[in-house]
Amino acid sequence: MSSYRSADPTRTYYVYNAAWSFLSALAFTLNLVYYVRDAGLDPLQMVLVGTTLELTCFLFEIPTGIVADLYSRRRSIVIGFVLIGAGLLLQGLVPVFLAILAAQVLWGIGYTFTSGADQAWITDEIGTERAGRVFVRTQQFQLAAKIAGTVTAGGLGLISLPLPMVISGAGMMLLALLLAVFMREQNFHRTPREERETFRHMAETFRHGLEVARRRPVVRTLVLISLIGGLSSEAFDRLWSVKILTFTFPELFGTSDPAFWFTVLALIGTLLSLGTSVALDRLSPQRLSATHPTGILATFALLQIVGVVGFALSGSLWPALAAMWLNTIAGTLSYPIESAWLNRHVDSRSRATVISMVSQANAVGQVVGGPPLGAVGRSSLRAALLASGLILTPIPLLFLRTRVPLSGNKTAHTAT
């Protein structure tokens, strides 16, 4: 089967990320409506669904990252998409609370198999210097595919709410099969079977990842920023829709149904992010691939704070939407730049593990920060949202304080 694996890695990365983004939008555009209407979940059950997913990601993020570093990035990604597809199929075919909880476990474990492994794979295959540009371009493909997936989900949802979820689950499994056949992995060197002592190597890889996170300023800073972001994001991600629903929607095409408007809002936010990404890529590409992009990342972080705080304080629909879109655009643009920056400061030996550590820090933040802010939101929605924005205030300063000299790059890549 290896003879089929001749596809260009960069092109493979673009196609698979676009497919992943399309299928994700297909599955999750209407999933909250499905939870309420078809599965009949109450608010507490909906929170428990999210908590189950976050805890699953937290528990499995680093172990699955170690698997990718020891055995195969490609195999880890393929396993991940099989599990994600199984979770989506279970969730769409069985509209029962316990089945949906089980689906979150499958989906969460599957996601952690892909998290970090895909970035580590493409960085190994094309090198750290090219990876930054590829990450930015990938973001644009993902946004375009997300638009297509959102529109498709809306059309299929008019027929049946679980239909887009079921099709997405089958599509994820098909994607896993295609990647198993065509995805080549030439620059990853797994531990030989005769030398492999699984638990010892896992422990060594984990210790090496911790050492990288401790010694290298960029990695240490991004772990801390990910933790702070998680402390803020859980409450905002769950409460923004509650605030939006307190406003009266105007009538468009003969309807003011919130479900219709939520689809429209998602499309507008994605289109704005895509347009801004393309414009920034053309006007200032050197900033997007800078060796130390601290200035632009600090700017995006500041814009996110303005967006969240502005949203919390807004008293009418359109200012609130403008603030929300500002936060979305800034976060969307910063992600590929952060990813490229992190990958430049991690060697292949523990790349997937370190990326997983950054993701796990975010999950810890969400689990710790979500419930207290949710409790605040019971008495004051504005106070909870405002607190979410204020929690982010250290991030721009953390970016600006992380100054790594050019000569430090070589040291960073050789230190153990």
TrEMBL record:
PROSITE patterns: MFS (PS50850). It holds the Pfam family MFS_1. The chain crosses the membrane at residues 12-35, 47-71, 78-107, 163-183, 222-240, 260-283, 295-318, 381-400. GO terms for molecular function: transmembrane transporter activity. GO terms for cellular component: plasma membrane. SUPFAM superfamilies: MFS general substrate transporter (SSF103473). Keywords: Membrane, Transmembrane, Transmembrane helix. InterPro entries: MFS (IPR011701), MFS_DHA3_Transporter (IPR053160), MFS_dom (IPR020846), MFS_trans_sf (IPR036259). It comes from the Bacteria. It is found in: Cell membrane. It is a multi-pass membrane protein. Residues 1-405 form the Major facilitator superfamily (MFS) profile domain. This is DHA3 family tetracycline resistance protein-like MFS transporter. It comes from Kribbella shirazensis.
